[in-house]
Amino acid sequence: MKFFRISILLILSLTCISCAQKKAAVSFEAMNTFMTMQAYGKNCSQSLELAKNRILEIEKHISTTDSESDLYKLNLNSANGNSNNVPINPDLQLLTIYSLNISQQTQGAFNPALYPITKAWGFTTGNYQVPDQNLITQLLPLTDCSKIQLEWDAINLEPGMEMDFGALGKGYAGDQALSLLRENGITSALIDLGGNIQTLGSKPDGSDWNIGIKNPWDGTSAIAALKVCNKAIITSGGYERFFTASDGKQYIHIFDGTTGYPVNNGTSSVTIVTESGLYGDALSTALFVMGKEKAIEFWKEKRDFEFIIFTDSKDMIYTKGLEDKIHIIGNINSSAVIQ
Ligand code: ADP
Ligand code: MG
Question: Looking at ligand 1, which atom is closest to the CA of residue 284?
Fold first, then answer.
């Protein structure tokens, strides 16, 4: 009898170990980037497949280059000089409302209507160029996102206006993917959507995830590591996409909507740590545009996220909530905690 009880216990514990260790992973390309997702536990492979399909569906709705996407049709309509209401799906509607709201909160640092400008610089095609100042002056009035009119299920852009959600689409896709995993019973997962890291729960053994933050000065090694669970860790950096022009200067893919020029304010990268991927992605771009001083001011008003900023002079600042979670690996000149 005793032997029987022991063997049942043994079998039970072995089953538990094997279900805790069940792991699945997928890798694919979407939203112009490489994505990987890993999940643990029962139904992990099927759940990852659902999450991947949801990301591909969102891409179909918000792509600026797929001629079947609602956003493509909306932009084309206005580029053709029309200003009629164009029907849109709920993903696009939600992102438009959210973007306009963040744009207001960040006093225009975040602007979903900069597409005519990013296009003129060649970031949409890879045919990079420094546009003529006259062209920039001509395009800037088209980037006034307060002119975007939202109807119940349609959007109206003034002729020539165009939107893009490159700055928060991946964060939204990450939130949607994690929701699907959660609904399917997954309690432990890590997704990496082109450098946007989002975690569901903790590691299967109950410990925190250890997430590397890229060194913005070489774009490859890790400069710091962060211990987190249930968080999105989203970074915007000039190193992600830039070109060197014939004037010898480097121009990056994040733009200052007041000048129509790529941001050049001494910021190397901004990492946001928060629960929502959408909020984190929007803020990583917005705080990059603001630069260090304004970013600190903004954080002091909100205090509903944490951030890390690396500057071109190799200084680091981070908010006090990260103090016991962060481990600096690479070489920096100084680090300071924002209280
Ligand atoms: P990444 O996509 O490289 O992770 P971001 O999240 O910072 O980086 O998004 C950058 C993209 O956002 C750009 O490629 C462009 O499409 C768009 N963008 C550039 N400047 C702004 C801005 N000021 N506000 C909103 N979107 C922007
Ligand atoms: Mg972003």
Answer: 7
